[in-house]
Amino acid sequence: MTLRVFIVIWGALVLTILLFGTLVAAWDPAPPKGAMLVGERAMIERQLALVADRDGSAAALAHWSAIAPAYPGIILAEDPACADDPPVRDAAGTCLKVSLTDTPSRFLEGLRILLLPLLVGFAVSAAAALLLSRHLTRPIRTVNAALQRLASGDLDSRIGSALDGSSGELARLGGAFDHAADRLQKLAEGRRRLFNDLSHEIRSPLARLRAAVGLLEVSPDRLAEMQRQIETDILRLDNLVRDILTLARFDSTEAHPAHVRLDLVDILEPILSDANFEGQPRGVVVNYDGPENLELAGTAELLHRALENVIRNALSHSPDGGHVSVQATTGSEGLRIDISDEGPGVPDADKPRILEPFFRLSDVAATGGTGLGLAIAARAIAAHGGTIGLFDNVPRGLRVRVILPAPAGSLPVRRTDDPTTA
Hints:
By secondary structure, the chain is an alpha+beta fold. The protein has helices at 2-27, 33-55, 57-67, 106-151, 168-218, 223-251, 264-279, 300-317, 373-383, and strands at 74-78, 88-89, 95-100, 260-263, 285-289, 295-298, 323-331, 334-340, 387-392, 398-404.
């Protein structure tokens, strides 16, 4: 950027000087009139002084009368006071004075000669200044126009390609703008999709509740029959609202609870116990294979919610008599927890979206969940600086891999009576 500005300014100066010299040489203007008259006057004074000194003032006057028509701007007159310096004086002491009829301004005469080169120089410098200003303000105008489009709702506005040829700082500005615009676009699309999915999720239980109320108004004796369905729909709505609030807290700028040193096995044990109890009617077994202690820095409540959602998801998609495996290992990457089921699995095309709110596979039977469990798990793991990935399980099913960073430095130790372990 600095080099370009220097080249433009330096080039404009050099071009102005070259054009100035070329115009002066090509135009070859006549000397200023005032300078010519002054030079002619000095020459005539020397000639007349020689004539007067040799032949007298009368001869000098006669000589002047002969050449006067060639010098219309000069006059010759007697000077009794001999005030002219140097005087035109003869041997008898008679003085003559050579003067100009009009004395033009030498400044204006010089300015007239330089007028055309100066105008050319001004034009060149103005053009260079215009080009330089447009070059310097182009990125600003580009960003301003993109911001105006973004403010008007055009979330597809991008400027990275328009600033590729700019300096490193401006190119990074373009990249940051595109990243922010992309983020805003994804948030807006996610919000629209969330509203659509949320309205769909709420509409079904509300419709059933409305139908149940209408049926009870007609047949009050069917209350016992409809009570279970009403309670199920109310519980579904309650879980949906709870999950939406949890997801909103992750997406907000609110600070998450402080991390403390804890043992992940203490969190897994009650989750595995509950999962095995729920899987008994269908013969689904959940096993844990890993160290007896898995220390890390985190928030017990968030980790409990994340791991419970993943394990319950695996449990709900496992076939009758199936097996859910929870394997934990430690290594340089931190703590790795693999949760594998023997269900239908997830197509590769749907893996990137399976962690989005309300996303469900079209060819998988509904499990009664809200569609927010894995989305909440992904955000809870991300809040701990970890990652969650989806892989195919062999021979069939889905393997969810959770990686959490190992604890670094000293952190507060969670007490064994911490209620968040429940």
